[in-house]
Amino acid sequence: MKYKDIIKDIKSKNFKNLYLFYGRETYLLDNIIKVFKDSLNSSLLDFNCSILDGREITMDLLLSNVETLPFMDDRRIIIVKDFELLKNKRKNFTEKDESDLISYLKNIPQQSTLVFIVYGDIDKRRKLAKGLIKQGIVLNCDKLDSTELFKWVKNKFKKENVNIDAEQIIYFLNIEDYQNKNSNKTLSDLENQIIKIASFTGNGNVVTKEIIDKLSSKKIENDIFKLIDAIGNKNSSLSMKILNDMILEGESPLMILNMIGRQFRIIIQSKQLKKMGYSSTVISQKINVHPYVVSKALNQGMNFDNEIIVKILNEVLNADFSIKNGLIKDTLALEIIISKFCV
């Protein structure tokens, strides 16, 4: 079955007893959870929907949830996120537990729907995975294909009440590079970008190529490259100018902070893998980023030893915590980090 068909069935309360959804597209996986929850009576949700941590769950806890009768409804939904046995791990489940669970999947109570959600790949060699594929509805939630992606983007712009023609949608998708196999962008990233473009464009107005260029994530990424280059060259005034320009253009200081952290993580990973003898192409595949980003990271890494990078990453982590807990203003936190490592 296709994703949209499964969603349609769930919304129509045409439930199956067993599902497995896995893959890299977290937006689709999170949306599935939402659709399952929305299918139930909201006032009785706490009684009839259980979301369990698959990394900590035991056999007894899983079975007790599946066997529990729904309360004042005809359906109870049990969602298990990141179940350890599907990721080739065995913390709380013995081999006998796994064998018993496979047998149990054939006899799930009619009033129960058991849903496994795995963020990332599953180990299809495992008996449990084979049992799920045989007994239930299984779907790999990977990146949307070109046709589905175009429709999705078009609908998102429409929902934001701005006008955009097919040519500009295609241009937007080319700029965002979502479908590149080395890209780690998700639909959540595209949605955030669409919201930003729509907000800048204004209700009822037309999205143009110029607006897309002005707000494109590639421009933001290039600005982050420039900022880290300036920090590496100890150019405090240029670093502050780049930061202030980004904020004036409407970029969130917290987003800038997170992108700085992301780039320094890429730098230290690239340096370590390069030291192990891997080429830039192989490194890009291993850390799932574009080869250009790896090339840029290796060049930038020449200005930072690993000890400094670790210190910067710790500063970013501490700043993120302080900002989110109201201990410091976001812009000030960024300025402090830049000042500290430009000396």
Automatic annotation (TrEMBL):
One of its GO terms (molecular function) is DNA binding. It comes from Tepidibacter thalassicus DSM 15285. It catalyses: DNA(n) + a 2'-deoxyribonucleoside 5'-triphosphate = DNA(n+1) + diphosphate. This is DNA polymerase III subunit delta. InterPro entries: DNA_pol3_clamp-load_cplx_C, DNA_pol3_delta-like_C, DNA_pol3_delta_N, DNA_polIII_delta, P-loop_NTPase. Its EC number is 2.7.7.7. Residues 221-341 form the DNA polymerase III delta subunit-like C-terminal domain. One of its GO terms (cellular component) is DNA polymerase III complex. Residues 19-141 form the DNA polymerase III delta N-terminal domain. Belongs to the DNA polymerase HolA subunit family. The keyword Signal does not apply. GO terms for biological process: DNA-templated DNA replication. NCBIfam families: holA.
